[in-house]
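DM from R.C. (forwarded with permission)

"hey, sorry to bug you on a friday — could you get me a structure for this? deadline for the figure draft is monday and I only need the backbone to look sensible"
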Amino acid sequence: MITLPNECYYPIFNNLQDNYKNLLSCALVNRQWCRIIIPILWSNAKDHLNDMRLIKIFLLMLNTKEQALLIPFNIILPSHPVPLFKYASYITSINDDLDCGITRWLRYNKYETGRLKNVVKFSLISMFLRTNKSLKCLSLNSNYSNKFGSERVNTLLEALYDNTALNTLDLYNNKIAIILD
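My reply, with the result:
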């Protein structure tokens, strides 16, 4: 069977980027199509960040430094294998729906949502900034009035500094209080 080069498939599948059902069906055809389609599907995941299943996938992708930020809060991370794709690296925009997804994941796992939501969010955003070279927009409309240690804030600031692709950073309605550890 003769296969087309990937360059021929990109414009075809990009025209279907708003039709998740058809794209997902195409991703199941073969491995070549799957490798092309998964980045397209996940590039517009911002509308699905409120799904706690995505939060679980993202938590599997945290490195040891980001996981260490969660240890003092006794958060038990999922113990599933690391995903086949680096899904977080395909996302181009993160909005406030991430808060809803984190809250749902915390409630489902019987955690208090108050301060833990912001701690988990700090770790996930650090991971997004570390792994994602195509992230263009990061919108944080949260009030971080809870006290965070300098280590957590420094991890986030380092990740912001290292990410060169970010075009838009919205920090409206934010109050970040830092206590030096």
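R.C.: lifesaver. The chain has a mean pLDDT of 82.
me: no worries. The chain has two domains: 1-42, 44-179.
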